[in-house]
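Incident log, support desk, overnight shift.

02:14 A customer reports that sequence design results differ from what the structure should imply. Their input is reproduced verbatim below. On-call engineer (initials T.W.) acknowledged and began investigating.
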């Protein structure tokens, strides 16, 4: 797919935006938000909504059709941005958050 190169430094696989570096940072930040929401200071009025599962990496990220190879007439669909979803992807994430909020109110 498009990986991180569409939005961040391309080709630096071991640096801050490399696959391991970026993924680790995102998960650590997510864990920090959850810990903060669950802390004694905030737990009485804060709820952590984990929307990681709402990111559909197969269907809602930008793609384009490209030749499947130099000597082939067939084409393939290739992801062009592995960071930011399409508008449909953002709506999908919003719907997941909305469902979580509705669940909190019941």
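02:41 Re-run completed on a clean worker. Output:
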């Amino acid at each position: 797919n498009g990986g991180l190169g569409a939005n961040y430094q391309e080709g630096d696989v071991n640096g801050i935006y490399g696959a391991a570096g970026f993924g680790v940072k995102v998960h650590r930040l997510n864990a920090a938000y959850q810990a903060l929401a669950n802390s004694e200071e905030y737990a009485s009025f804060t709820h952590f909504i984990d929307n990681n599962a709402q990111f559909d990496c197969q269907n809602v990220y930008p793609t384009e059709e490209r030749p499947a190879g130099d000597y082939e007439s067939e084409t393939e669909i290739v992801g062009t941005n592995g960071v930011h979803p399409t508008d449909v992807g953002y709506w999908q994430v919003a719907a997941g958050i909305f469902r979580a909020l509705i669940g909190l109110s019941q």
